[in-house]
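Please, structure for the following, as tokens.
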Amino acid sequence: MYRMRTYLDYSIGPLPFRINSLLVSPSLLRLSGLRVFRVGYLPGRTGRRRDHVCQTWALAYIVGGRGFYQLRGFSAQKVPAGSLILIPPGQIYDYGPDAGQYWDEYYVRFDGPRVSEWMSSGYFEAGTVARVGIQHGWKFKFEAIAECLASGLPNKADRAALLLESLLYEITEALDGQSPKPGQLNERTATILDDISSRVFHRFDANALALSHHMAVSTLRALVKQQTGFSLGEYVNLVKITEAKRLLRGTDIPVNEIGSRLGFDDPAYFSRLFRKHTGVSATAFRKRL
């Protein structure tokens, strides 16, 4: 397993910190819409940045301690633990722990056209501090992004971008207030969709899934349709084909075995379904990668 590279710099803090940077040429990446350039974890940070300018977008997540953040020309903002700071490129800013204090910081630097789409969504406001609480799943996402960058492989760098995209989406949900809105996942439906994903390597059984969630199959079908726009069967197949594409990209497992692992007893049916969703056979999909 890849790990963040560890450094020690007493101007930053008394504890070892970990940083990983993009190790491949951006020209080798398939995804140009969002690219991750650096990710780090700085525990026990005591040093401050003054008159700093970041050349890319940066997202800092403070998971311990407290401090401040101040864009040039604006008032200083308090940064307690559980805060997110979205820092725009080209802006002068100061930030860091309060005097005599520390903070624990995850951060990621990124750029690309997709950023403007996220900004136009209205969920993010660059240069402000958002208090979202401690989300342990987000810390794991930062660690996973770091592992991808540490590999030095182009496909892993692309995966880092996808992980960041999913992190940004989860952040938008947290920033979208606490009341559910039309089309927004409620906890019950989210649990069902997660459960479908967890059963991707088994033959799908709608009755068993409904029973495990203490509901009728008709209710299960209605909830999935309402949330995703797909019938239950269509959604399950979509999840399975998405996993099949991941296995085709990242492994040498034979096509028929992939179908079998995903719960398809009939290789011909798996082949037809894959072509229906992708427009090409599974073999052709793998060859063009």
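The longest strand covers residues 57-71. The beta strands are 5-7, 17-21, 35-45, 49-53, 57-71, 77-80, 83-87, 92-97, 103-111, 129-131.
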